[in-house]
């Protein structure tokens, strides 16, 4: 049996046995090294795990994870919801529109879908239920809307992609994700509004409209967060990694002194949760380094890329097949694992067809975003259904509806690369060949 096959079979076998993906990657890579190289080469395991995480851009990941938790618990979501309600007012589908808009804004602060899903669900679900929205619909909509955090800058997933894909400017990725993220939000907003109007959810005379001026003043600190982060990146005032530090500092300041939702005990719990989540992510990245090194050294990734090329020499056919493959992977794996497993296989194809790496990264992110609310493993949906206190199986049909509409937005970005590439090009970032 070839070393390539041994490595892949061990990895898949470990996954089927329920072994955590990080250890499945590490054991698969170690098996490939043992069979295809030499037992002496197992001495590289320590070096590979260290080299995988000893990269400056990765410092931003635990910081943005902490940022997401801060904004989730600092009362930011509540102020944004109140402001959005003051703008939209009571109407059929009004609260659904508020949920989507707030998720988009929250995505510009944390870059974490589950954090946004938790924050918005805690605030919006009681109001939506009271207005007549079914809980499965509300939970599915918020989970799908929160998935746009993977696209709206800053994005933890795009940070990881910039590390895995050589030569990609992270600032260009951040800028490229903005319009596709808004497009994905619109693809959810339109059917949500139509369904609300069709079923008569949220009567126009129900509820009160918060005063615009008062709610705007309360929301200013929250609304300023994306401006601070993106403005600093665009002006060159700080790097993406430094932007994460700024975001954490700003979040603490408004959480403690403005919204006054964070105290000493809350900050301690935040730090503990952020450390735990960051530890899980870094373990995945470090052990995936073994898998990546083994796959590169053994030529496994090139072999898999050639196998994909043998299916079709038409770039559009192959691109669609890749999108379907990533969509299926997103139903079972988290974003970090998908990038670490699939991207090394796809790099030869990106070079072969001359695909723009920034545009391709946004396509992957949009696809993974869909996976975050698509069962059976739907991290965002797990969060919102827990808040709603309903079973995950009750959301399947609604999740399918939003999956289809967001996939349409993915196809638009696939067919019109300028949706993603226009903004980074205008801002002067390096986006590569069109």
From TrEMBL:
The chain crosses the membrane at residues 6-37, 58-83, 95-125, 137-161, 173-195, 216-237, 243-262, 274-296, 316-342, 354-375, 395-423. One of its GO terms (molecular function) is transmembrane transporter activity. GO terms for cellular component: plasma membrane. It is found in: Cell inner membrane. Pfam families: DctM (PF06808). The keyword Transport applies. InterPro entries: DctM (IPR010656), TRAP_DctM (IPR004681). Residues 8-419 form the TRAP C4-dicarboxylate transport system permease DctM subunit domain. Keywords: Cell inner membrane, Cell membrane, Membrane, Transmembrane, Transmembrane helix, Transport. The keyword Cell membrane applies. It is a multi-pass membrane protein. Its main location: membrane. It comes from the Bacteria. Part of the tripartite ATP-independent periplasmic (TRAP) transport system. The complex comprises the extracytoplasmic solute receptor protein and the two transmembrane proteins. Belongs to the TRAP transporter large permease family. This is TRAP transporter large permease protein. The lineage of its organism: Bacteria, Pseudomonadati, Pseudomonadota, Gammaproteobacteria, Oceanospirillales. The gene is siaT_14.
